[in-house]
Amino acid sequence: MARPATHPPAGRAVAVLVMQGTDIGELVRQAMMVLALIIVAAKLGGELIGRLGQPPVLGELLVGVLLGNLNLFGITLLDPLKTNSILRMLAEIGAILLLFEVGVESDLGQLLLVGWSSLLVATLGVIAPMFLGYLVSTQLLPDAGWLTHLFVGGTLTATSVGITARVLKDLRKANTKEARIILGAAVADDVIGLVVLAVISGLVTAAASNGAAGGVNWLTCLWIVVKAALFLILAVVIGRFWSQRAFTYAARLKISGALLALSICFCFAVATLSGLVGLAPIVGAFAAGVVLEEVHYRPFLERGERRVEELLFPITTLIVPVFFVLMGVRMDLRSFASPAVLGFAALITAVAILGKQICGLGVLERGVDRLAIGVGMIPRGEVGLIFAGMGATLVLNGKPLLPPAIFSALILMIMLSTFITPPLLKLVFERTKPPSPTDTEVSDSRMSRAEIPS
Questions:
Q1: Which residues contact 217 (CB under 8 A, 6 or more apart)?
Q2: N or C, where is the chain less crowded by C-beta within 10 Å?
């Protein structure tokens, strides 16, 4: 099966250290110091970047890039962060909780009623960048396998709804037709992107089990697509049925923290099932979040407990930054000393932007600024980062599916696409009439995704 590159499971790593006579107390002290450093650095980086009008997640990524490349200045003290199994485990748990939180904040009813324009925009916004990314990868990386090209294209698919929503709010355009289409499309875009991730990761697993990059036939591909669709449908249908009854029974418990504990256990259970059927665990985590509706745990609310989103926030605000910092740590700036890598990064960023402009053709309504739609879909977010992170840890034929140089180029693309969106969107909207006084803010649940790492 496809497996993480070079890093042993965290539990086995600890066991090996103990067998070698390593002081477990010293190991714990080191882990606490590393976590303290990462969390403080992430928060400081997020604060600084936030004051520049950019999403805090960029600050966390930049802090990771800085920490991971201190060896360029002769400081090698933090180099073990790149291969630390315990840190990697925490980062993966952070990614799972992040997608669970995104799912919890999504309304299943709204996902099914995004409208034809939003659905077409989302579909084109996935197909066009993925095709262009695959094409660029095949031309500039001729020695890489087709699954690597597919993973590069898949990383370009998802849009960060939180970043775009925050920019629309700041521009007082959150109640325009363009904003409603963009936000609906971005949410649908995330869902489609996760399905794409499930399918591609399943193909990698099948290819690795066959021992060759080309060992996946079309029948296997079709089965993986069907399996991903069936899992999501069954997870939603059965999950809604089970969760409503489970939370109703759990409401009889008087002990504090029961709602949070059951919610996280539900997330981990569905994520584990997703992994067992050969799909990415984050797909299961997102599905678990989508089916968990407020009506399921209303008895907890009636006795004064907070909503699941509010209960998750203190945990995700500590764990999720570990994921983003680790993504930055893995970015090797020395890769960009190669003109070939720089050219790949520049071209992949260009097609990432161009591909999202094509999605404006999916707008059916008249009087809608299609350029604003395309620009609003540019920023990549959590799904793109998770795509790249998975590609860097999956092994095929003894090599990482995404080598360090390609991974670094993709992280740069995600950062640049996020940096340029706010000024571009402002410029596009300034071509039209000034905002109406009736423009209102987007819902708080969507805005919260712009405030925490997304």
A1: none
A2: N
Tens digit of each residue's pLDDT (9 = 90 or more) over 184-211: 787 778 778 778 877 887 787 777 776 5
CATH number at residue 297: 1.20.1530.20
For residue 360, give both structure tokens: 């404006």
CA distance 278 to 205: 7
Q: For residue 226, give its domain range.
A: 10-451
Q: How many domains does the chain have?
A: 1
Q: What is the mean pLDDT of residues 211-233?
A: 71
Residue 256 half-sphere exposure toward CB, CA atoms < 13 A: 3
Phi, psi of 332, deg, nearest 5 = -100, 110
**What is the per-residue pLDDT across 404-424, written as a single tens digit (0 to 9) for each?**
889 899 988 988 888 888 788
Look at residue 1 and tell me if it is in a domain. no
Q: For residue 88, what are its two tokens?
A: 């990697």
Chain center to CA of 333: 22
C-beta separation of 394 from 400 below 8 A: yes
Q: What type of residue is 419?
A: F
pTM of the predicted structure, to 2 decimals? 0.74
Which residue in the block uniquely carries the two structure tokens 């991730």?
197
End-to-end CA gap in the chain: 29
Q: Helices 177-210 and 146-155 meet at what angle, rounded to 10?
A: 160
Q: How far is the C-alpha of 304 from the C-alpha of 308, rounded, in Å? A: 12
DSSP run (H or E) holding 381 = none
Closest of 363, 352, 57 to residue 182, by C-alpha: 363
pLDDT, average across residues 114-129: 84
The more confidently predicted of residues 430 and 346 is 346
What are the backbone dihedrals phi and psi of residue 399, each rounded to the nearest 5 degrees, phi first? -130, 150
Is residue 2 situated within a structural domain? no
Contact 382, 91 (CB under 8 A): no
